[in-house]
Amino acid sequence: MGATEGKRPWDGEVISVQPRTRLLRSFDERSHSYLGYVLHLRGTLDGEAREFAVAVGPAAQAKLEFRVGDRVSGLGVPVADPRTEIADLYRVSGLRVLVRGPDSASNPPPYLGIPPTLEVYRARGHRRLSATTYRSRCSSCLWGCEMPVEMIIDHWNPSKKRYRTEAFCYGPKSCPFYRPGPTRKVPGRRGMTWEEADWVDEQDTAHRGPDE
After folding, report:
1. Phi, psi dihedrals of residue 198, rounded to the nearest 5°
2. Please, what's the b/e burial string for 54-75 (b: 16 or more CB within 10 A of its CB; e: otherwise)?
3. Cα pseudo-dihedral 38, 14, 61, 164, rounded to 10
4. What contacts 204, CB < 8 A, 6 or more positions away?
5. What is the mean pLDDT of each run of 10 residues along the chain (212 residues)?
C-alpha cells in the first residue's frame, strides 16, 4: 500500500490554530492528553468546498508555525472515531504553507498570533468557557479550545462511556469576551451526578494574574 493511499487532499485558509486536547472524566476525576494542534480551515477537502479541521503534531507546528491567514495544503486520513476528535482529518503528510498570512498584530482579543507550545498551555491551566461564547467570540483565538470529552460512567465497568464536547479558555483572566457558562455536570453510576464547581477553575489558574 502506498504512503498516500487512502489519504484525502485538502487545502485552505487557516481560520484558527488551537490545541488538540482530550479530556477524560470519571465522575469527580479528570485527566488531559495534550496531543498537538488543530487547524481550522476554510477551503477544499477532497474536492468539496467547506470548513473543516485538521490535526497536526507539535513538531509540524514548531517547524511551520501555522497562524490565522496562512494558506496551507496537505493530505490526511479521516479520523477513526469522531467522538474522540475535534478534527476531521489526522495522520497528515505533505504539509505546505502556500501563502503566509499577515502578521496578526491587531489589538486582541481574539489572540491570533502563533500559538505557544503545549507545555505552555498545560502550565497555564484553563477555565470552562460557554459554548455559545466560544462559537461567537473565541473560535479563532489561540487561547480558545474545544475538547472531546470521554466520560467513564462506572469505574467498575470502564466500558460504559458517554461522549460530549466542552469548550475551555487558556487566556488572560481579564479578557472582556470571557463567559464561563453553566457548571459542568458529570454522570456517574446508579444515576449519580457530580457538578464541577467554580473552585476547580479558580484552583487551576490561581498561579496566574488577571492579565496573564
Report:
1. -60, -30
2. bbbbbebbeebebbbebbbbbb
3. -10
4. 125, 126, 127
5. 76 98 97 98 97 98 97 98 98 97 82 96 98 98 98 92 98 97 96 96 97 94
Q: Which three cell numbers stand for residue 155?
A: 469505574
Which pairing describes strands 144-152 and 161-169: parallel, antiparallel, or unpaired?
Answer: antiparallel
**Best CA proximity match to 45, nearest among 89, 96, 93:** 89
Q: Up-side HSE of residue 190: CA atoms within 13 Å toward CB?
A: 1
Q: In this structure, which amino acid lies at residue 101?
A: G
Nearest-angstrom CA–CA distance, 212 and 191: 39
> Could you tell me the pTM of the whole model?
0.94
DSSP state of 211: T
